[in-house]
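Write out this protein's structure.
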Amino acid sequence: MAARYVPIAVLVQQVGYLVSPLKELTILILNPTNFGDMIDFFHGHDDLEKGIIRVLHEHSFKDDPTRIFRAVRFESRFDFQIEPDTLGYLDNALEIISYLTSKRIWAELKRILNESMPDKALKRLGDLGIFTAIYPNLQMDDTLLNQCRMLRDGCEELHWSKIKPSNIHYVGLFTFPMGYEQMRELVLRLKLPNNVRRILQHVQAIKIIVPKLKMPQSDSQLYALLSPYNDSALFICWLAIEDTTVRQKLIHFSKNLRHVRPLINGTYLVENMGLSPSPIFSKILTMLRNARLDKKVSTLTDEHDCVVMFITNKAKGLYDESTNTY
């Protein structure tokens, strides 16, 4: 592919700043004078025209390993190529990534994930061994890359089509192939925020129940399996799981079941049925929700009769506590 020339004004606009000589890449060290001339001590303009990413000296990445992430990010954004010597310097500096703080690594990863086409940079991070330098079990294979592309390009399934890709979704895909302890180690390595940790834990929990999801079950049973987990975790699993049956159930729950509620509430039980508030209300409302999920009731009268039957059967000892059914 021929190198694509990027005008300096465009580069500055997208990078966000004109970089001083203390920075790392030749294409960023272009300083305009007040007279409109360009001071270019390191032949950055030539590298711009050739589409080359080049560092200033062989110790650049060792001086600051975050430059590795920026080199890959700009290479992918502008369709440039990291030149061979710079690739060699990068490879020699990979082991120093382990000395970077969690905050700096996560900041650079977020910048890459916020790119318009992050999968290009993610593939490069994998190919160059940068992912494994961050954490040994962090891999980027073709399957994961395709999942990232599907996330980036939007989903053919309309239910998920309005979801905007975020850092959480990408990290969820990264950790999906891992076991729980490996996921936990990566979370600690990057010191990920609590909301991200919670979703990753949900993803791991959903993975455990996949064998159950492959089996037939009623809608109320499906609700019991999936209701503890939020939609971001369900979406990540939908992207990562290949089994068609499981994927359909994830959509069915999120789209049709999650927000099902009975018409009767606690106030109705007190005012219309003369019941005194007690812990049994929770069991009654759960039983009504399950009955509605399984299409055993559809109207307020149906639910009222269902409560009467529940109370009668409970008095006779016929109520099944384990399933909240009568």
